[in-house]
Amino acid sequence: MADPMRIRAQASGDKATVRVLMSHEMESGQRKDAAGKTVPAWFIQEVTATHNGKPVLSAEWGPAVSKNPFLQFAVKGAKAGDKIAVTWKDSKGDTRTDEATVS
Amino acid sequence: MQTRRETIKQSMVVAGLLASAGIPQFAQAAFNKTGFDAKSVQDAVKAYGGGAIAESKDVTITGPDIAENGAVVPLGASTSLSGVKQMLVLVEKNPAALVAMFHVSDAVEANFSTRAKMGQSSDVYAVAIMADGKALFAKKEVKVTLGGCGG
Q1: CB–CB of A82/A16 below 8 Å?
Q2: What is the domain extent for residue A66?
Q3: Which residues does chain A have within 8 Å of residue B106's beta carbon, measured at their own beta carbons?
Q4: Residue B12: pLDDT band by 50, 70, 90 thresholds?
Q5: Looking at the partner chain, which of B31, B113, B118 has a beta carbon nearest the beta carbon of A46?
Q6: Are B130 and B84 in contact (CB under 8 A)?
Q7: ipTM of this complex prediction, to 2 decimal places
Q8: CATH of the domain at A45
Q9: Which residue range is the domain that position B139 belongs to?
Q10: Distance from C-alpha of B111 to C-alpha of B58, rounded to nearest angstrom
Q11: Which of A19, A102, B26, B63 could cross-link to A9 by cystine, CB 3.0-4.6 Å?
Q12: Element (H, E) at B49
């Protein structure tokens, strides 16, 4: 159901900078709708990244991360042609994985 | 010769140490709810097994001086230290201080950027929790202007 992530991974020297743009509502659980009811929280809780299948990063996020979250990190030893995959899991249990090739 | 005031101050310090020692160390759960429910920076750090936070120039936080839109504030946390276990990004005056936590492995650099929501002008923190439980932080004030007047 969720839209694909946009992942760009660029090699520079002995590392690759990975930029990820996820598509997610990131509802904080603080907002109220027109009827005055609190909108339940719905946000990405876990983000993991793999480099050629090997896990390199895991992160936990709270509802204070912005809507359509952006994430940047650098993978050591990654070179052009390597595969970087990013997975997220939200508080409703939805997950999505997308993969990109280092350029 | 100790004044009464000093005695009270010391006993409060001791009480604080006892309280922090009593916090159980959580096994690495799938999602650390305690950390994300914590109201203060120190409580959130504690939930991840860090000790008292100390300022360090080896940790950097990047962010704007003035954020025109509190819903999207670009924040970056990085450190040049080795032996970092976790990097935390926190906004002090948010309803829950912790924004994001990153596990640092050998394969990634301890340098992360993301975007955070901020309810009001506040100090933002980058905290590096070291393998030995030390917690080092850097902070920066970010002003949030509401109404789009541009400050």
Answers
A1: yes
A2: 6-101
A3: 76
A4: low
A5: B31
A6: yes
A7: 0.82
A8: 2.60.40.10
A9: 29-144
A10: 12
A11: A102
A12: none
- A74-86 pLDDT, tens digit per residue, is 888 888 888 889 8
CA A31 to chain centre: 23
- Cβ contact (<8 Å) for B116 and A70? no
List the CATH number of the domain containing B111: 2.60.40.2470
The token pair at B106 is 């050998």
Has residue B91 been placed in a domain? yes
CA dihedral B55, B59, B63, B64 (to 10 degrees): 60
**pTM of the entire structure?**
0.74
Question: Contact A69/B114, CB-based, under 8 Å?
Answer: yes
User: Which residues of chain A does B98 touch, with a Cβ-Cβ cutoff of 8 Å?
Assistant: 62, 64
Amino acid found at B134: K
In terms of CA atoms, which chain B residue is nearest residue A69? Answer: B115
Yes or no, beta carbons of A60 and B73 under 8 Å apart: no
| Number of domain units in chain B | 1
- Domains contained in chain A, number: 1
Across the interface, whether the CB atoms of A70 and B114 are under 8 A apart is answered yes
Alpha-carbon dihedral sign for residues A60, B57, B115, A16 = negative
Here the tokens at position A102 are 């280092």
